[in-house]
């Protein structure tokens, strides 16, 4: 069984996407044997009111009985937008969403902003995970209208060191660290923080070139299948698990990476 912990529907203003609706994504999932997917609405990154995007997603999922069985909706929340607390509570308690995605880069606040800390604590208290992306797209291929996070600028793309401060601030929350694409060098203390936190890293990021080494460093319970679809492809994240040699991962461990760790995080 495969559970994708990192997928989206919706539109990206600077790139044409395919398979970016529940219907077309479901067809793509069936092609690659993916059983379920954690999904958020890309439109929420760009709408001033992210709740409109959350409602769009739920309405789309409710439009077909197949979708509710296959998609696990996460709300996009902007904690510096008025009414965000009500939005989060409504999303989780009323709309039945199973987690939260925060996008500090796009919504223009720091990862240790008091609003971000408060949002993570609220998600913790609601019992749901919080997802942070290293990046949404490769900043080397950017529109002049996109955010300025090119490497070498005052706001470069994130690496793990940039995300860990919020983990240190709220160590008892649940985290999904997604699309790991840049420098992964950490101190022993930072590695230990990851090990003792309820945290999952998905397999979509281009820096996961040797899955076995990362499992050895962080532990097998810290990884789960993810695609970053439809921006990235399905096969890469899958191959990082399936290409593990027998001496690196037995079938039981592979099944944890495919779906077991995700089930534990999501409570399914």
> What is the arithmetic mean of pLDDT?
94
CATH topology: TIM Barrel
Tell me the radius of gyration.
17 Å
* Low-pLDDT residue spans: none
Strand order of the largest sheet: 1-2-3-4-5-6-7-8
Shape by Cα distribution: globular
Protein name: Amidohydrolase family protein
Domain Amidohydrolase-related: 47-268
InterPro entries: Amidohydro-rel, Metal_Hydrolase
Organism: Mucilaginibacter boryungensis
Would you give an account of this structure?
The radius of gyration is 17 Å and the shape is globular. Helix 2 (50-62) runs parallel beside helix 4 (84-94). It has one domain (3-266): TIM Barrel. By secondary structure, the chain is an alpha/beta fold. It has helices spanning 22-32, 50-62, 65-70, 84-94, 104-107, 114-126, 160-169, 188-196, 211-218, 234-242, 251-266; strands at 3-9, 36-41, 71-76, 99-101, 130-133, 174-178, 198-202, 223-224. The model has no long low-confidence stretch (mean pLDDT 94). Helix 9 links the parallel strand 7 (198-202) and strand 8 (223-224). The chain has an 8-stranded parallel sheet, with helices on both faces.
Entry keywords:
268 residues, alpha/beta, TIM Barrel, eight-stranded parallel beta sheet, 8 strands
